[in-house]
Amino acid sequence: MPGPRRRSVLVARLAGRPAGHAPGAVLEDLRSCILDGDVPPGSAIPVDAVAAAFGVSRIPVREALMTLIGEGLVDHRPNLGYRVAKLTAKEFAEIYLVREALETAALRVAVALARGEDDERAAAAHTALEAAVRAGDGRAYHRGSRGFHLALIRPCRMRRLLHMLGTAWNMTEPLQPMTHLGPADRELLHRDHAAMLAAFTARDADALIAACAGHHRRLQSYIARLPRDTGLFADPL
């Protein structure tokens, strides 16, 4: 006889939420759970249980899942249902190349338009990142790294480019790649961040782009070393 069915990681994460969510709130909460990394790639998303957790019908849950499919965060297959999307290792590396191209374009504009308050926000983000490095907190470092990069590129004020970059970044979030690195690797990435911050505040576009390129080369080398036996990556196509 089959053993007892395991409770969905996502449903456990949703436990305790007040009932009667609006459709938009269902989408935001589901997206947040996936992006936080608490629901790893490949996790099942049982529609009935999720609807019960939110205190809503299946309709807003299915609508939210269709939106998340369009964002690349959820997969749906006949007879298997909905799951948090997986990427192959090759696809994962490709998205980092897309991120580098978009970030480079944004930085060239951002460094020219940045003001003193932008320097302060970038410095504060770097300080928070420093605290995560010193504490050895991989989850905080992962969140802080995104916050730091965003602080550097946000002054570009290119809304569509920032949206595209955010979408690409979100697709890699469920795997939480920075949490798989050791302290020495995170320290090296943090040195890259320091070089990027120095170039940004000096308004040295060439130095900033060079530091960003070096940072992404290091990221690609780390991505190549991410463990393939955890079940987080999809099988090669």
What this model shows, in words?
By secondary structure, the chain is mainly alpha-helical. The chain folds into 2 domains: 66 residues, Winged helix-like DNA-binding domain superfamily/Winged helix DNA-binding domain (Arc Repressor Mutant, subunit A, Orthogonal Bundle), CATH 1.10.10.10; 135 residues, GntR ligand-binding domain-like (Four Helix Bundle (Hemerythrin (Met), subunit A)), CATH 1.20.120.530. 65% of the residues lie in helices and 4% in strands. The chain has 10 helices and 3 strands. It has a 3-stranded antiparallel sheet with strand order 1-3-2. Helix 6 packs antiparallel against helix 7 and helix 6 runs antiparallel to helix 9. It is globular. 28% of the residues are buried. The N terminus is likely disordered.
How are strands sequenced across the largest beta sheet? 1-3-2
Helix content: 55-70%
Q: How many helices?
A: 10
Highest CATH level, the class of the largest domain = Mainly Alpha
Q: Give me the strand/helix succession.
A: HHEHHEEHHHHHH
Largest sheet: 3 strands, antiparallel
Q: Outline the low-pLDDT stretches.
A: 1-5
Helices and strands: which structural class?
mainly alpha
Enter the CATH topology name of the largest domain.
Four Helix Bundle (Hemerythrin (Met), subunit A)
Mean pLDDT across the residues is 91
Q: Report the count of strand segments.
A: 3
CATH superfamily of the largest domain: GntR ligand-binding domain-like
Strand content: under 5%
Q: What is the CA-based Rg, rounded?
A: 19 Å
Shape: globular
Q: What gap, in angstroms, lies between the N and C termini?
A: 34 Å
Supply the CATH architecture of the largest domain. Answer: Up-down Bundle
Overall number of structural domains: 2
